[in-house]
Amino acid sequence: MIPVPQTLRRYPWGLIATLLFIAGFGMLVLYSAAGGSFTPWALTHGMRFAIFLTMALIIGFFIPLELMARLSFLAYAGIAVLLFGVELAGAVRGGSQRWLDIGFMNLQPSELMKVAIVLALARFYSMLPPAETPRVRALGPALVLIGIPAALVMLQPDLGTALSIIASGVVVMFLAGLPLWWFIGAGVAGIAALPVLFSFLHDYQQKRVLIFLNPEEDPLGAGYHITQSKIAIGSGGLDGKGFLNGSQSHLDYLPEGHTDFIFATMAEEWGLIGGLVLGFAYFLLLRWTTRVALDASTRFGQLTAAGLTMTIFFYIAINLMMVMGLAPVVGIPLPLFSHGGSSMLTIMLCVGIILAVQRDKSGTRRPFG
Fold it and tell me: Does residue 236 lie within any of the structural domains?
């Protein structure tokens, strides 16, 4: 047998293969969604993935985790400034102001904040003495760190991304060891305040929530997306209609079939089997990130890997629930599968940073909490 060079053996080939499969499968679906053409989506999807995978490997193997910890607050502040920039000069698409035009892509700073909030909170709690964790001192700064970007994102408006930022931050706070009754109390208060919070939503957001509860109420209007998504998924059956044979997406019945509702596009052609295979690939990705979090050698590494795992999981879970009618329609794409540069950049940043956590052996492992 030909010996494998040590430099090649260092690379996580199982992880790379999983990422290649997800992105490659996504390219096939985007190729079909465009009517059998690599343009305008499949080719750019593949090119972005190649660039961002290289970036993730560079981050994972050449940037020390300690440097990331030191720069975490600065990165958070920089992305917060970009969020303010969106409010001042952001591009408007689909009635929302979420993007900054940087030439080769429209950057969505709120996507990057999903990573920055995890790094900032992990840094904060890794610096905080363990005896201070159950005290109010551990709560106030974290709420400010979460509240600023969440409020700015809500102004865009982007409820789904704001909830994702909050969820990732809360996971880091929980794993840092804050008292459980704080979370229970916040949850009870949140449920009690739902009617008030609902009144502050934009009209279209309120309609999405109401349609989620009763999608048949307006099947040709506000409920059109989810109705067509269910039709596409259900018509795929066990093994699908076949590659390039989907009718819902090819006849333009399914809106956003290349972005938020790409799973419905895939399920129509590849059926339940295709969905299960894709789900297993995501399971392998999340199993790796979870193992890295459990085995991390520093407090910062533990909280960072766990928080970023939650970020990736939130993408997957909310998107799949949305397209199946189990959650209101929000603008959250399917990781590495949907067409979109900002979301892919965010996911690959997560992968790169978790790789750096896996490589780091600078501290003594501590349990969560």
Answer: yes
Average pLDDT of span 346-358: 96
Provide the residue range defining the domain that includes 253.
14-359
Q: 4 in a domain, yes or no?
A: no
What confidence tens digit (pLDDT) does each residue in 86-133 have?
A: 887 766 666 566 777 766 667 788 889 999 999 999 999 999 988 888
Q: Per-residue pLDDT for 2 more than 90?
A: no
Residue 112: inside a domain: yes
Count of domains in the chain? Answer: 1
Is there a contact between 339 and 30 (Cβ–Cβ < 8 Å)? yes
Contacts 24+ apart (CB under 8 A), 49-58: 49/19, 49/23, 49/336, 49/344, 49/348, 52/344, 52/345, 52/348, 53/16, 53/19, 53/348, 55/348, 55/349, 55/352, 56/348, 56/349, 56/351, 56/352, 56/355, 57/11, 57/352, 57/355, 58/352
What are the residues facing 107 on neighbouring strands? 100
Q: What is the pLDDT of residues 312-348, one digit of tens each?
A: 999 999 999 988 888 887 778 999 999 888 889 999 9
Nearest-angstrom CA–CA distance, 276 and 205 = 31
Radius of gyration of the chain (CA): 21
Of 320, 187, 349, the residue nearest 260 (C-alpha): 320
Q: Is 100 helix (H, G, I), strand (E, B) or coil?
A: strand
The answer, as to whether pTM is greater than 0.70, is yes
**Is residue 368 one of the residues assigned to a domain?**
no
Which residues make Cβ contacts (< 8 Å) with residue 150, sequence separation at least 6? 162, 165, 166
